Amino acid sequence: MPPVVPPFLIGLVAASLVKRLGKPVVRGLVKTTVSIGIEAKRAVTEAGEGIHDLAAEATAEALAAQMSHGAEPATAAAGAPQGASRTKPAGKARSTGSTPAKAR
User: With helix as H, strand as E and coil as C, how does the chain read?
Assistant: First the structure.
């Protein structure tokens, strides 16, 4: 009859092998995942900067075209303060935040 090896001894040997072989694999997987995340964040940041640059160029070209036709920018022509680009439509008056006093 062959010698009987208790199952827990097989488990102890297998666990130590998995720990030795699995730890570098998991470490490499985590490093790769983190580096991919960093690269993705960098790519998104660069894309955002590119979009802002395109928007600034388009705004500059529109203002240059408007100025070359002898027209003033829309905000200055309307008498709006610098930086204000929209006016609110006339309508219901705003409340001042105070409540009217009740008659006694």
Answer: CCCCCCHHHHHHHHHHHHHHHHHHHHHHHHHHHHHHHHHHHHHHHHHHHHHHHHHHHHHHHHHHHHHHCCCCCHHHHCCCCCCCCCCCCCCCCCCCCCCCCCCC
